[in-house]
């Protein structure tokens, strides 16, 4: 496909029209992909009973599936122990305390430094420190080496991404859905392999990026070939999203998967394309060709 045709086939998603439900501001988060995920889940026959995110991170698609009744249940799998602590705390009965502590925390550079100087002694403390770090470190990055934001937005420093009321509401809303959400602290590829035969599951697979993953995540090393091989054995529907690299296009072709690009703009307003991979992505092309779909302009809302 020529560059011009690729550009024409891409639609920019209006993220401001998509509810943010995750407690995280997640690097590589897929809130912008929600309109496509809705189309995908509605296109599945029979419809999925359970949506699994084997690389959950901020779990924007898993949460959407449950909140919008696009699946009965969601299972979130994540390897990172800090991220896991947040999901476990919200889902294991400590969400109210977490929400209250977020509300009460008096955000300042000094308070953050004091909090992060003490190693957490419990899962709860780890969850709270992770939520704070996610809000005060540059780009929400939690990987080792990430630094505190300096001036932040409009010179608000570490407070510039700290929205305690919003965060409190999101934590409580997720807790209210806890009977429909399961969290697994573990390896996503392993989980995929062990559940490959399940027909009632739809898989939203968003692994660490091949290029930027190392900078963004504590766990970023994935055997991409192995992931494609496991995906080829899945009985249920799946949607994989990746950075658009020759390596990934090559793997998709080898496993005879369908691919298409979708467009986004990042927080610096640069236009970027992401590669979707699946068995049959006609639903994407139908959506993009629909006169109703229009042309959207992406804005990243705060939070
Ligand atoms: C691209 S992010 C997912 C973002 C997510 N879709 C969202 O909307 O927030 C990839 C995630 O995979 C996690 N991860 C890396 N290796 C993993 C593994 N082997 N098993 C499970 N999760 C893993 C990373 O910690 C990171 O949170």
CATH superfamily: Vaccinia Virus protein VP39
- Helix-strand pattern: HHEHEHHHHHEHEHHEHEEH
Mean pLDDT score, rounded? 88
Strand numbers in spatial order across the main sheet: 3-2-1-4-5-7-6
CATH class: Alpha Beta
Question: Main β-sheet: number of strands, strand sense, barrel status?
Answer: 7 strands, mixed
Characteristics:
seven-stranded mixed β-sheet, disordered N terminus, 303 residues, Rossmann fold, single chain, 7 strands, 13 helices, binds S-adenosylmethionine, alpha/beta
How would you explain this protein's 3D organization?
The protein is of the alpha/beta class. It has a single domain, classed as Rossmann fold (3-Layer(aba) Sandwich). It contains 13 helices and seven strands. The chain has helices at about 5-10, 35-45, 60-65, 80-90, 95-105, 110-115, 125-135, 165-175, 190-195, 215, 225-230, 245-255, 280-290; strands spanning about 50-55, 75-80, 180-185, 200-205, 240-245, 260-265, 270-280. The protein has a seven-stranded mixed beta sheet. The protein is globular, with a radius of gyration of 19 Å. The structure holds S-adenosylmethionine (SAM). S-adenosylmethionine binds near residues 28 and 29.
Please outline what is shown here.
The protein is of the alpha/beta class.
Helices and strands, with pairings:
Blueprint: H1 3-9, H2 34-43, E1 50-53, H3 60-67, E2 73-78, H4 81-91, H5 95-104, H6 109-117, H7 123-136, H8 164-176, E3 181-185, H9 188-194, E4 201-205, H10 213-216, H11 224-231, E5 238-243, H12 246-254, E6 258-265, E7 271-278, H13 282-289
Parallel strand pairs: 1-2, 1-4, 2-3, 4-5
Antiparallel strand pairs: 5-7, 6-7
Helix pairs in contact: 2-3, 4-7, 5-8
S-adenosylmethionine binds at residues 26, 28-30, 54-55, 57-60, 77-80, 83, 187-189, 206-208, 217, 219, 222.
């Amino acid at each position: 496909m020529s560059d011009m045709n690729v550009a024409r086939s891409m639609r920019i998603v209006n993220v401001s029209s998509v509810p943010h439900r995750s407690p995280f501001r997640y690097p590589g988060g897929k809130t912008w992909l929600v309109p496509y995920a809705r189309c995908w889940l509605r296109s599945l026959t029979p419809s999925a009973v359970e949506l699994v995110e084997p690389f959950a991170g901020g779990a924007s698609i898993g949460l959407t599936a449950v909140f919008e009744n696009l699946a009965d249940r969601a299972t979130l799998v994540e390897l990172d122990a800090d991220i896991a602590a947040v999901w476990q705390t919200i889902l294991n009965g400590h969400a109210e305390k977490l929400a209250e502590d977020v509300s009460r925390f008096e955000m300042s550079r000094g308070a953050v430094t004091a909090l992060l100087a003490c190693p957490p002694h419990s899962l709860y403390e780890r969850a709270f420190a992770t939520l704070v770090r996610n809000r005060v470190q540059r780009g929400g990055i939690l990987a080792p080496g990430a630094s505190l934001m300096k001036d932040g937005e409009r010179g608000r420093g570490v407070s510039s991404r700290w929205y305690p009321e919003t965060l409190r509401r999101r934590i409580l809303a997720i807790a209210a859905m806890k009977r429909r959400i399961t969290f697994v602290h573990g390896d996503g590829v392993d989980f995929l392999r062990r559940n490959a035969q399940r027909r009632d599951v739809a898989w939203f697979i968003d692994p660490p990026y091949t290029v930027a993953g190392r900078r963004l995540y504590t766990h970023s090393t994935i055997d991409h070939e192995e992931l494609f091989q496991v995906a080829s054995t899945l009985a249920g529907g799946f949607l994989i999203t990746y950075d658009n690299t020759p390596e990934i296009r090559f793997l998709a072709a080898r496993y005879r998967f369908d691919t298409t690009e979708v467009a986004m703009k990042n927080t610096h307003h640069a236009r970027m394309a992401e590669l979707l991979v699946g068995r049959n992505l006609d639903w994407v092309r139908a959506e993009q060709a629909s006169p109703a779909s229009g042309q959207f302009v992406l804005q990243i809302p705060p939070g």
